[in-house]
Amino acid sequence: MTSDPLADFDAEIVRFLASTGVPAEIVQLSTPPEPEFGERATNVAFRLAKERRKAPKQIAEEIAAGFDAEGYRFIERAEPAGAGFVNFYLKYTAFIPHAVEAVESAGTAFGRRDDVAVRDVVVEHTSVNPNKEWHIGHARNAVLGDVVARVLRQAGHRVEIQNYVDDTGPQAATSIVGFEDFREPERPGEKFDHWVGRSYVKVSEELRAEPALRKRLEEIEAAPSQVGAGPVDERQSVWARLENVERLKARVVATMRALESGEYGPLVQRILKAQLQTAYRLGVFYDLLTWESNLIESHLFQGAMDRVRQSPKVKQPSEGRYAGALVIETGQPVEGEETKAEVLIRSNGLPTYIGKDIAYHMWKFHLVPNQLCSMPFITQPNGAVLRSTSLHGQEREERVPSQNINIIAVDQSAAQDAVREGLRAAGFGAAADELFHLAYGLVMTSEGKLTGRRGAIAADDVIDEAVRVAYERVKEKRSQDLSDDDMRRIAEAVAVGAVRYFMVQYNPLRDIVFDVSDVVSYDGNTALYVQYALVRMFAILRRAAADAGVTDSEIDDADLSLLSHNQERRLIFQLSLLPGVVADTSRTLGVNLVAEYAFNLATVFSQFYRDCTVLSADADLRAARLRLVRSVRDVLAVACDLLGVPVIERL
RNA sequence: GCCCCCGUAGCUCAGGGGAUAGAGCAUCGGUCUUCUAAACCGAGGGUCGCAGGUUCGAAUCCUGCCGGGGGUACCA
Prior knowledge:
With 651 residues, this protein is an alpha/beta fold.
């Protein structure tokens, strides 16, 4: 059984073109803009025009004239069109059973081609500082990464999803200082990450005020005459605040050191576990948590830095702006200027994120001796165990990933480049080439950047709002036989679908404008539209069994040759596009293709639903249509699963 | 200043050499005693930021300009 029915059609087209003397290398196939142009088109006539010294149109005519349907299973006819296209038309009588049987035999694995070259891929996503609740940008990261991983797995690759926990960085330390020294009162029912986050915000705002305070102090000291006009003690209060800032900075540094040795572990884990609740609610799960503190404690970081030091680009200057720090030069040397560099180890001896990330990637690619083990951390709501790096425990499998995909926001592109530079400096150029950064765009509001520390919208709040609106609409729509529990479950599924769909429907590389009202609109091109189409399919199949008494074996044995309606053909063609979408997406990581695919399939189904009644058709046709609907349901469910959009059976 | 990304319908966005540039929302007008209308059908709405260039063919590639965002920290 074939795994990609449409590829069989394409292969016949290539074979036919070869028989007319067109080399396979130059054949490009596309889907024509209008249905009347057939299912596939090729532009080979344009490409051959110069070489053959003929008009494209004439070449296209000659190619099409040479077509004889004899000997081809899926090509009905070939026609010249436009200025030089050759259009190919599917022979649906043969293709419909071919496609339906492919879907039926593949089941949930539909989309995987059997000629796939299986890769081991590490996908790193989320990697949120354990200091504060997720904002909406983190949700974009997690959902994008999750969908990328799902698509790669569907394509047949082996994927390990890692979530890196920067538990020794300034953000985590600031949060702990805030929680220890300036704890905010807990609000009833508040998630722990939100609670701690409020202390973090307070402290980090004070730390960020430093430049402004210093400037103010300068102003006061430059114009002492004006001091008398204002509050007499302003100079003193600015001084006091600056002293406080210095104290805080010292506390943060001390806390970073404490974090490196694993102190505060329980507190950091508590923050992380609260954050993970948001992931789980969105249906995002992980395979491995990599703890930064483990990289330090295991001396893996030290080993990586020793390796990097061998590069002439890595230096420890004794003077200049980088005095005392370990840096890697990333810019070109400019006469009279200090060469641009990234700091790997600060002059106070503490590693930077970039330094630690270089070490992490050496470990990811198995380039340095492994000194980390793993142990179970938590069982996730999907039943899968989330493992955690550790100093003792189970040894790592010696399966070297051929590729690393990092889902990290575009504003960290320079840092990711530096990591790649670091790998090259250590002599690991091949690994650097296989480190792919999916630089997804920022989430903005109409007022501007939102993924910053201020004005951030909490992901939990957005989900809650989406659930609230969904619940209201479920309730007003139907009293039906749905219990309140059912309605709440549906509302949650609708809301999660809405949030996830919002995150994947756009090209990942683009900045997007976030508006809660778009997420909860539930009209048009949304997850609910897709879920609703599925609800209709489930209803048809349910009623066929319950009201009409149609059995599964009747559907299994249905005569597919009865399917000849244009809408039925369009559905079949749409179904058969999925393997191509999976393959393209796993190559380009443009996950919006999957959302677009799901929407298109749902749209074609809606049109079929309008024009072709299933239940009131004659028994034989009814059985054939039920078999078609069942396949559409299964394929659309696969697409939903790739998107992580929950499938619901009734609304 | 330098580096990267982006300017497509009123709004939010697809399309990244190929046929008449698409979708959703919004606006206006039609379809429910339904296979559950959170749906379907139709209408209006575009010098694809501007100017050159490459090509049989440019929204798409190249150059310049204009506008927006990000980076350019011993933050991540």
